[in-house]
Amino acid sequence: MSINTHELTGAKARIFKALGHPTRLYIVETLADGEKCVCEFVDAVGADFSTISKHLSVLKEAGIIEDEKRGLQVFYRLRVPCIMNFMGCINEVIKINLEKQLTLFKQQKRETKK
Predict the structure, then answer these.
(1) Is the dihedral of CA 79, 38, 26, 22 positive or negative?
(2) What is the distance between the alpha carbons of residues 65 and 61, in angstroms, rounded to a whole number?
(3) What is the pTM of this model?
(4) Helix (H) or strand (E) holding 64
(5) Is the pLDDT of residue 114 over 80?
(6) Helical spans, DSSP H, in 2-76
């Protein structure tokens, strides 16, 4: 693997790692509907400002979101809305996995009846 390929792979892994927490995934999916302030996430998630700020910081550092300060509030938005295409792909993987599990469950159920 070349140095450039290794660096690019590492950059991709950092993005996956940033998305690798349920709260951060929730934030990203929520931002697909438009920008939000920190207080909206605090209320929705039920976590304190400090915790939400840490999650937002991880997403911002990964380049997934950006912020804009307006007065005393900070608003966040997706930096690259195309990330939602990836979320659609993830949903498809979940669907396929569930269908496979359901098929296996039905087969096992039929075999137990014999």
Answers:
(1) positive
(2) 8
(3) 0.82
(4) none
(5) no
(6) 3-19, 22-31, 38-45, 49-61
